[in-house]
């Protein structure tokens, strides 16, 4: 098995483990040597190790900051004071109380408090976190005041300096709680370094509180078991300073709006209950020398709770406002997304339709081109090979077939070119005054032979109609196409007629048949280029006639619409603006915008 080299184990990722490992060794050694002469020296070593950890650990993880230097300086002073006590213990001497190591301890506490305040400032706590921290500090102060400070202040046989120093220790503990409690409540990232830092300092506070109680009762000794708690606190602080997660404590963490969770409710409940409970305990013990402190602490706690409720209410309002803004923004984005989705779906439908029309166009054009070309080639081959000297009548018949198919090709090409002109908006019109009734009569007369051949009644019903400004040849093309379709899809015995009329400044021409009709689905695509209904696939045609007719009518400022019912017939309606005359009103002079509407009868 391949071994692990010392260099690799001591890399940056593992070097931090040396500090906690050394602290664990010191703790074990102290527990083993507890009560012996080496105990104070090992205890001093634990303080020195914590001091070194606060200077080396953050630097190792590139997290150097004033807060860690303050904590390190405080632990250095702690080590100095512990060393003085250890030296005196080794020499078999005792220090008076108070002495200069007590002053060093109090200065160290001051540095701890400053470090906690700097750490608190870096976490950027909310106002609610600060108020909750003050509630914790108020509770701690209310407990410490009657249990430690007042008894020390009233202790007989002690000097003023002794009472001041004895009261200073718990006071410093309260100040440290004021700095650490908001940090505990404000940090939302529960990293290992954060947990060890909080555990170390609060273990230190508990040890100090126990020391003060024991010292007040006169039962504390240098070999007391409470010293183990201080060594454990130092070990936790070493771990906190060396662990890589210490970098997280330098970065403010975004916080959600404050809320009263179980922990916060417990804090408020304890803060409000401490005063009455402590009063009951003191009553039971017949110890009532602290009455002025109780109402002060209770009023302070109540005021802080009220402030907290106000802050929570404001946070709630801000959260609701942010929620409403988020919902409004979400609705806007959803509407935009839905609109984009609808547009995308429409574009996709258009692409599919274009693809379908392309396939239909290729199929229609191929068929319409191939059929006449095949016929032309066949007749020309017969003329060239089989019948050069045949009867003249037969040759003329072949030539007529060639001419007919050539005309069919020419018509298809002209229709394609004409449709291109319409779509490009380049259709040229030669406008002139035209009586639509006369034009309808001419078109009906031209279609009469075909109608008689198919045994279809064809006539014109015309009321008095004004003239229109139009291109005669183009309107003739439209009427011929509509009549041709009507005769093509009307069975024998049916009827086709053109009905003319005028209303609201428009001249109306309706081509009405009693033919097979058009389905509602096909009516939606009726005027699309190359559209051919599957029901009339056997009937020759390119699907361009109605699209061209609509384009011509639209170019005249009119509209072409259709209404139909299957089995009942179809009506195509042309509406054109009447010709303007002198003295006509504004409504008569305004052109009518082109439109397309398909209605079912």
Explain what the structure shows.
There is one protein chain. This protein has 601 residues and is an alpha/beta fold. The chain has 3 domains: 263 residues; 74 residues, Orthogonal Bundle (Helix Hairpins), CATH 1.10.287.130; 170 residues, 2-Layer Sandwich (Heat Shock Protein 90). It has a 6-stranded mixed sheet with strand order 2-4-5-7-6-8. A two-stranded antiparallel sheet has the order 1-3. Helix 14 packs parallel to helix 15. The longest helix is centred in the middle third of the chain and has 94 residues. It starts with 5 loop residues before the first helix and ends with a strand. The N terminus and C terminus are likely disordered.
Overview in brief:
This protein has 601 residues and is of the alpha/beta class. It contains 18 helices and eight strands.
Give structural attributes.
disordered C terminus; six-stranded mixed beta sheet; 18 helices; 66% helix; alpha/beta; Helix Hairpins; single chain; 8% strand; disordered N terminus
Structural class, by secondary structure, is alpha/beta
Report low-confidence residues grouped into runs of 5 or more: 1-10, 582-601
Tell me the total number of β-strands.
8
**Distance N to C terminus:** 92 Å
**Please, what is the average pLDDT?**
75
Overall body shape: rod-shaped
Q: Topology of this structure?
A:
Layout: H1 6-9, H2 12-15, H3 18-33, H4 39-60, H5 66-90, H6 100-123, H7 127-154, H8 160-186, H9 192-217, H10 226-242, H11 262-284, H12 293-386, H13 392-424, E1 431-434, H14 436-453, E2 457-462, E3 468-471, H15 472-488, E4 495-503, E5 506-513, H16 520-523, H17 545-555, E6 559-565, E7 569-577, H18 586-589, E8 598-600
Parallel strand pairs: 2-4, 6-8
Antiparallel strand pairs: 1-3, 4-5, 5-7, 6-7
Helix pairs in contact: 3-4, 3-10, 4-5, 4-10, 5-6, 6-8, 7-8, 7-9, 7-11, 7-12, 8-9, 9-10, 11-12, 12-13, 13-17, 14-15, 15-17
């Amino acid at each position: 098995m391949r071994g692990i080299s010392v260099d690799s184990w001591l890399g940056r990722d593992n070097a931090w483990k040396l500090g906690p490992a050394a602290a664990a060794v010191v703790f074990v050694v102290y527990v083993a040597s507890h009560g012996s002469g080496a105990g104070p020296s090992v205890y001093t070593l634990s303080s020195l190790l914590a001091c070194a950890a606060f200077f080396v650990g953050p630097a190792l993880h590139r997290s150097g900051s004033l807060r860690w230097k303050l904590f390190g300086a405080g632990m250095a002073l702690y080590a100095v004071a512990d060393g003085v006590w250890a030296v005196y213990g080794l020499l078999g001497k005792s220090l008076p109380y108070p002495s200069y190591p007590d002053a060093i301890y109090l200065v160290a506490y001051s540095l701890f408090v400053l470090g906690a305040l700097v750490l608190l400032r870096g976490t950027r706590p909310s106002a609610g976190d600060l108020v909750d921290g003050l509630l914790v500090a108020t509770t701690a102060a209310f407990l410490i005041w009657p249990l430690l400070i007042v008894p020390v202040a009233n202790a007989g046989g002690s000097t003023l300096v002794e009472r001041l120093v004895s009261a200073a220790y718990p006071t410093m503990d309260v100040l440290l709680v004021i700095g650490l409690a908001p940090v505990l409540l404000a940090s939302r990232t529960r990293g290992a370094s954060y947990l060890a830092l909080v555990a170390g300092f609060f273990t230190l506070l508990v040890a100090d509180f126990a020391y003060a109680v024991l010292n007040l009762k006169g039962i504390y000794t240098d070999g007391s078991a409470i010293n183990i708690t201080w060594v454990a606190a130092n070990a936790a602080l070493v771990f906190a300073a060396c662990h890589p997660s210490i970098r997280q404590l330098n970065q403010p963490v975004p916080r959600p709006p404050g809320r009263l969770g179980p922990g916060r409710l417990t804090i408020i409940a304890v803060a409000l209950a401490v005063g009455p409970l402590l009063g009951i305990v003191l009553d039971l013990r017949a110890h009532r020398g602290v009455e002025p402190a109780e109402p002060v602490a209770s009023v302070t706690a109540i005021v802080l709770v009220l402030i907290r409720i106000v802050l929570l209410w404001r946070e709630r309002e801000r959260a609701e406002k942010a929620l409403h803004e988020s919902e409004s923004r979400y609705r806007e984005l959803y509407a935009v997304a839905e609109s984009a989705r609808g547009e995308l779906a429409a574009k996709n439908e258009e692409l599919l339709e274009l693809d379908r029309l392309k396939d239909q166009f290729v199929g229609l054009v191929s068929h319409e081109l191939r059929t006449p070309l095949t016929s032309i080639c066949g007749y020309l081959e017969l003329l060239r090979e089989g019948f050069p000297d045949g009867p003249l009548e037969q040759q003329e018949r072949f030539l007529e077939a060639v001419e007919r198919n050539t005309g069919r090709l020419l018509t298809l090409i002209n229709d394609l070119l004409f449709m291109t002109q319409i779509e490009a908006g380049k259709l040229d019109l030669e406008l002139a005054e035209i009586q639509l009734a006369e034009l309808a009569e001419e078109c009906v007369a031209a279609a009469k032979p075909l109608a008689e051949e198919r045994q279809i009644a064809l006539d014109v019903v015309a009321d008095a109609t004004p003239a229109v400004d139009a291109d005669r040849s183009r309107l003739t093309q439209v009427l011929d196409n509509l009549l041709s379709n009507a005769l093509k899809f009307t069975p024998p015995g049916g009827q086709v007629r053109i009905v003319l009329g005028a209303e609201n400044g428009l001249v109306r021409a309706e081509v009405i048949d009693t033919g097979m009709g058009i389905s509602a689905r096909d009516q939606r695509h009726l005027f699309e280029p190359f559209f051919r209904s599957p029901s009339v696939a056997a009937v020759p045609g390119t699907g361009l006639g109605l699209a061209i007719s609509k384009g011509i009518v639209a170019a005249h400022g009119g509209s072409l619409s259709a209404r139909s019912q299957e089995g009942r017939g179809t009506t195509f309606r042309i509406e054109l603006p009447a010709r303007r005359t002198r003295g006509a009103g504004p409504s008569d002079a305004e052109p009518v915008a082109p439109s397309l509407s398909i209605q079912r009868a």
